[in-house]
Amino acid sequence: DQTELMSLTNKSTHTVAVDAFRWSWAFNYKEEGAYDIGTPDAKPTLWLPINERTRFELTSPDVDHSFWIPDFLFKMDVIPGRTNKFELTPDKLGTFPGRCAELCGVDHSAMLFDVKVVTRAEYDAHIQELKDTGQAGLFDTGRSSSKAGVTA
């Protein structure tokens, strides 16, 4: 069962690079060239188009975290120096809570996010909104350097 759940295909529609960092999340929509990032005071929302396969690439620049969406019945660790990958296809519209499931420090309880599964048109409109508000490119929380910033 685990082998089937963890298998990667070449059928994914797009890739979301998820950076877990003390104490929030950044979601990089790689093909779309946009990102969303949260803070402990303002949780981010991960947008996914319904019935489209998405590949997730999980990284952390600091300590162990765990990417967990209870309604999706899936959790995966996020470990510094390693990229963990999985794919899924959301098949139900709605908003679902997500959180870090690995005790990662003082503000671990603030590592929350929402997942919004929407139509393709709503997804495209949201990506454009991110770009229009200056969140174009990819956000780097330290994967490739010691300083966080935006990479084009």
Structural notes for this entry:
The chain is mainly beta. Helix content is 12%, strand content 42%. It is built from two helices and twelve strands. The chain has helices at 2-6, 120-132, and strands at residues 14-21, 24-29, 34-37, 45-49, 54-59, 65-69, 74-78, 84-88, 94-100, 112-118, 138-140, 149-151. The strands form three sheets. It has a five-stranded mixed beta sheet. The chain has a five-stranded mixed beta sheet with strand order 4-10-9-6-7. Strands 11-12 form a two-stranded antiparallel sheet. Strand 11 (138-140) and strand 12 form a beta hairpin. 28% of the residues are buried. Residues 144-152 have low confidence and may be disordered.
Name the quaternary structure: single chain
What is the helical fraction, as a range of percent?
10-25%
Please identify the structural class as seen in this structure: mainly beta
In whole angstroms, the N-to-C terminal distance is 38 Å
Q: Show unreliable segments.
A: 144-152
Shape: globular
Count every beta strand, where a strand is a DSSP E run of 2 or more residues. 12
Q: Sheet bearing the most strands, described?
A: 5 strands, mixed
Question: Strands of the biggest beta sheet: in what spatial order?
Answer: 3-2-1-5-8
User: Strand portion, in percent?
Assistant: 35-45%
